[in-house]
């Protein structure tokens, strides 16, 4: 547990009372390097006087499930995480074929702008220094060379991402893909395999797949992947890279593909990979985990997928300091993963600390860091455009990064 500042750096001399809360089948077994506070030292709630950082040791119970942990203090944003308890079991490979990972030859300065059709539907137009233009053209002029789009199975359904409107469905994705390719930029497609947001806290299967047995579920995932890829290919907009799942460190297509069903998760990932390569054998495959600075958790996921021989090319990480640690944690994790697994690594999502994150992502040993994708820079968090569509000073970070790293 660390106290960090707005730049993601540890404040080593900060002396702050902190309360830890734990929910689920687990207990706080020990707290090292902190003085106990005046709160009752129950197994699930503790108060400590923290100086900079401390170690909290949790002990799982006997039930496979979710443990929620939160640290809070006056005047600070809380830190929180969800821990999924797992019984790993014996690994069963999804294929005996040896896969040779493909390499990304170009460095990537990318942006996820999946919100764009929604923003344009509200009448928002984008401009830079008084020049109004297609925002994809504006981004390219600032040095971006890759666009990422998320896709949901049926976002228009009543409980979907975009009820009745269907933003981020296949048809909207096809139109956006045409614009991306027409601009001369490359295209990353991010399959959520859900009708709604898929992230570490929710990975709910599409409504159309509910009730299917596991054999049918695998076929549905494969067939859907093939259909999306084929329609994109037929219009001349084949993705250059594909994420088989979004932030999948807790699995995907729950419950069958949850992280506590490691063999089933591996099989579902394999169906996605096969579906992509059935249409486009040269498309790069990314596995995307939301574990920017969390090395032990990253290794757990990647070790288990590697043991099961899931084929993939690139490791993608999300990095938001509130959940994923300091810049030093990010650098250490990216360095270790690229060395340990002999895979290229990139930051697939970030928004804060723009220059610092890119400096880390582009400077790994042996050139194994291939770049970044900023998440939704048109409208959310530390956006590079204001709410009226006018660019702000944050956009000026990117020409410098492009000049420095896109050689």
Can you characterise this structure?
The protein has 407 residues and is an alpha/beta fold. Helices cover 28% and strands 23% of the residues. It contains ten helices and 17 strands. It has an eight-stranded parallel barrel, surrounded by five helices. A five-stranded antiparallel beta sheet has the order 3-4-1-6-7, with no helix packed on it. Strand 6 and strand 7 form a beta hairpin. Helix 6 packs parallel to helix 8 and helix 8 packs parallel to helix 9. The longest helix is centred in the middle third of the chain and has 21 residues. It is globular and about 65 Å long.
Topology record:
Layout: E1 15-23, E2 26-32, E3 35-36, E4 45-51, E5 55-60, E6 66-72, E7 79-84, E8 108-112, H1 116-121, E9 127-128, E10 131-132, H2 135-141, E11 146-151, H3 170-182, E12 186-191, H4 214-234, E13 241-244, H5 262-279, E14 284-289, H6 295-307, E15 314-318, H7 321-324, H8 327-341, E16 344-349, H9 354-361, E17 369-375, H10 397-405
Parallel strand pairs: 8-11, 8-17, 11-12, 12-13, 13-14, 14-15, 15-16, 16-17
Antiparallel strand pairs: 1-4, 1-6, 2-5, 3-4, 6-7, 9-10
Radius of gyration: 22 Å
Q: What is the overall silhouette?
A: globular
Give the spatial strand order of the biggest sheet: 8-11-12-13-14-15-16-17
Low-confidence stretches: none
Mean pLDDT: 95
Secondary structure tally, helices: 10
Helical percentage? 25-40%
Determine the N-to-C terminus distance: 39 Å
- Biggest sheet descriptor: 8 strands, parallel, barrel
Structural class by sheet pairing and helices? alpha/beta
